[in-house]
Design a protein that fits this description.
The complex is a heterodimer of chains A (about 190) and B (about 130). With about 190 residues, chain A is mainly α. Chain A has helices at about 1-35, 55-60, 65-85, 90-110, 115-140, 150-175. Helices cover about 15% and strands about 35% of the residues of chain B. Chain B starts with 10 loop residues before the first helix and ends in an 8-residue tail after the last strand. Chain B has about 130 residues and is of the alpha+beta class. Residues about 115-130 of chain B have low confidence and may be disordered. The chains are: A mainly alpha (about 190), B alpha+beta (about 130).
Chain lengths: ~190, ~130
């Protein structure tokens, strides 16, 4: 009896995981997709506001880092595929940027930092990694870092908004009663 | 289970760290650049201009005029480009290190810090190492 109950639980968890991650990936991909068509404010390759990252933050704060990385990769792939920019410079920049961002944000959440600071730092790392790769691989000059100041400001705004969106998203998810979080005793970031 | 908070006191550490890093980066940037810029159309170097003489140069190819390059204050930027989106007209070469117009296949870079794959003559990445 006990064993059957345990296996039923696991199937339910798996189903919830598939459902949740699917919805989350689609949401992130669509936001990413539209962001690519907004005219760039700065002459940086692959410039994007970065609002699709609040989704990553939700997954980081309620589920595993592995799942957050999966979402990050998938949103980049699907978003750029749909926009016809798959494997473009912007794709690689976004990919490495968001993966690095996920790691940093996961560590910071585990260390019990506030959501806004985690999000802003994640955005900062995202932008810096993208600048670094763009300067080294695509442009061949570090002059691009002259724009670092403006990028940090824009990134901070995006990071702030993303934190709010994540918080609101979690509140909304709680209200639905859907068990979107993983089954772990500690629900702080790494989960 | 810890509570999901928007702000904690230790956040200030992060904000200060970010501020320090950006200030550090902006200060470390090398102000001097090369005096010459090269204009490549379709990967072949077509023009070479000096940043010291202020002028507005016209970039042309077999298809006619492509764009203007305005040289002013030892800096250069693209103007009046024939491309549809005019993304290349954003910013200047002192800011981004390179001016690129994808539809017209034009790349404008500094003379010394470009990577010349065709000539096997890697002159190095950037001016910070000099």
């Amino acid at each position: 009896m006990h064993e059957t109950e345990k296996s039923v639980m696991r199937d339910a968890d798996r189903t919830r995981r598939i459902v949740f991650l699917s919805v989350v990936v689609v949401l992130a991909s669509v936001i990413h997709f539209f962001e690519m068509f907004v005219p760039p404010l700065l002459p940086v390759p692959g410039f994007k506001w970065g609002f699709s990252n609040f989704v990553l933050l939700i997954v980081i704060t309620s589920r595993t880092v592995r799942e957050a990385l999966l979402v990050a990769v998938l949103k980049g792939v699907i978003g750029t595929l749909l926009a016809g920019r798959f494997l473009s410079p912007a794709f690689f920049l976004g990919l490495f940027g968001s993966i690095s961002s996920v790691f940093i944000m996961a560590i910071l959440m585990k260390q019990r930092f506030g959501l806004i600071a985690v999000s802003v730092t994640g955005a900062f790392i995202n932008n810096m990694i993208q600048l670094l790769i763009a300067a080294l691989v695509f442009i061949g000059s570090f002059r691009l870092f002259h724009l670092a100041g403006y990028l940090v400001i824009i990134g901070s705004i995006t990071g702030f908004v993303n934190a709010l969106l994540c918080f609101g998203g979690i509140l909304w998810l709680e209200k639905t009663g859907f068990q979107y979080y993983s089954h772990r005793p500690h629900r702080d970031g790494r989960n | 289970m810890t509570r999901l908070r928007l702000f904690r006191v230790k956040d200030l550490l992060l904000y200060i760290a970010i501020a320090c890093v950006t200030i550090g980066v902006l200060l470390t940037l090398n102000r001097t650049g090369s005096d010459m810029i090269i204009v490549k159309i379709n990967k072949t170097t077509v023009y070479r201009f000096s940043l010291l003489e202020e002028a507005t140069k016209t970039i042309e190819s077999d298809n006619g005029k492509l764009m203007d390059v305005v040289i002013k204050d030892e800096d250069a930027y693209i103007k009046n480009s024939t491309c549809p989106l005019h993304l290349c007209e954003e910013g200047s070469i002192a800011q981004t290190g390179a001016l690129v117009c994808v539809p017209n296949r034009v790349i404008i870079t500094y003379d010394t810090d470009q990577m010349d794959y065709d000539n096997e003559d890697r002159r190095g990445y950037d001016l910070m190492t000099k």
